[in-house]
Design goal:
Distance between the termini: 40 Å
Oligomer: single chain
Number of strands: 0
């Protein structure tokens, strides 16, 4: 379970005096705790599920990629490097990302399985993709692929 992995990794990083890993893992645990609290307001008492945690981690990676790009544009390579180090730590907890071909095959399979035929079915297809492949693909890119597939392009 990812929650246990976070805590175990934090303990290891503390023992190894790896300050970047300690701070990044604390950020992950803080974000997770905040999302668990938010989930309680919706009646989910056990906290967010594994798919929710994977989604949270992907969001954290995306934010850091954007920040690193902005730091580089602003002439702050040391801050961009810090963001990339955090990305490497976060990505240790994510499953292997699907290649574009694998993502396209998964999309084709779900479209066929659901009998999706028009852009109106995009929501159903995306929901099923998220349920089956959480943490394995970039859903922003997948959205474009689904849209192209359903519009016949």
């Amino acid at each position: 379970m990812l929650r246990t992995q976070f805590n175990d990794s934090l303990k290891e990083a503390m023992r190894a005096k790896d300050t970047r890993a300690v701070s990044t893992l604390r950020l992950i645990l803080t974000d997770l705790k905040n999302r668990d609290i938010e989930a309680r307001t919706r009646g989910v008492t056990d906290g967010i599920d594994e798919a929710g945690i994977l989604s949270m981690l992907q969001t954290m990676v995306k934010q850091r990629n954007e920040s690193a790009g902005l730091y580089e544009q602003g002439g702050r390579p040391e801050l961009a490097q810090q963001e990339r180090e955090e990305i490497a730590i976060i990505e240790r907890f994510l499953p292997r990302q699907m290649s574009e071909e694998e993502a396209a095959a998964a999309i084709d399979g779900i479209v066929t399985e659901l009998g999706a035929s028009s852009i109106k079915d995009m929501g159903k297809v995306m929901a099923e993709l998220k349920a089956r492949h959480a943490g394995q693909m970039d859903f922003a890119k997948a959205g474009g692929l689904v849209k192209a597939r359903l519009s016949g392009k």
